[in-house]
Write a structure and sequence with these properties.
The chain contains 6 helices and 2 strands; from the N terminus they run αββααααα. The protein is mainly alpha-helical and 183 residues long. It is globular. It starts with 7 loop residues before the first helix and ends in a 23-residue tail after the last helix.
């Protein structure tokens, strides 16, 4: 008998949101490379967008971005705008269908992280909250995007191991969530 647990995705999403929010508030401000810090709100937004329903993607992006804005010292609304647009673009592109492959999710996340981090840093430069272009791009955005990608790889691997069938990364594979395609 096959039992479909429709609430599993919700439970996994809530646990993921609580864990990443606590890490964003407690650890992310103190761990960095050069001037870049991990944006776990971006990781959460993409993980939920790739694993959830396409119609909820902009709301997820806005909520995660607003959390980041309120938790940090940057302008309120900037990250909310960037994550809303990014999640909408991922949803319109139909990228939630690749949720069964954690590697594809991480590969798709890399350009999204670069665009969001560089866009955020560039707006900070325009508003005078950063000193130079080199500082913005090479000392904040690129190291931050690298930390974001490492965080996303950990989250995608963890989600692939949950075995959820509600659309989270890799929940439908018999190999524990890792795709054997191409081997």
């Amino acid at each position: 008998m096959i039992v479909n647990d429709t609430g599993k995705f919700r439970r996994v999403a809530i646990i993921l949101a609580v864990v990443l929010c606590l890490l964003q508030l407690s650890i992310a401000p103190y761990v960095g490379i050069l001037g870049g810090r991990a944006n776990l709100a971006l990781v959460l937004a993409v993980a939920l967008t790739l694993g959830g329903e396409e119609s909820k993607a902009p709301a997820i992006g806005f909520a995660c971005g607003l959390f980041y804005d309120l938790a940090g010292s940057g302008p309120i609304g900037l990250m909310a705008f960037l994550l809303t647009v990014m999640c909408y673009a991922l949803a319109v592109g139909g990228h939630s269908r690749i949720a069964d492959d954690p590697t594809a999710g991480v590969v798709l996340f890399v350009p999204a992280a670069l665009i969001v981090e560089v866009g955020y840093a560039f707006v900070l430069l325009v508003f005078g909250q950063a000193s130079s272009f080199v500082d913005v791009v090479f000392l904040r955005a690129l190291p931050g995007a690298l930390l974001d990608c490492l965080s996303m790889a950990v989250v995608a691997f963890a989600l692939s191991r949950t075995g959820g069938t509600g659309g989270t990364f890799g929940g439908r594979h018999s190999s524990g969530g890792l795709s054997m395609k191409g081997l």
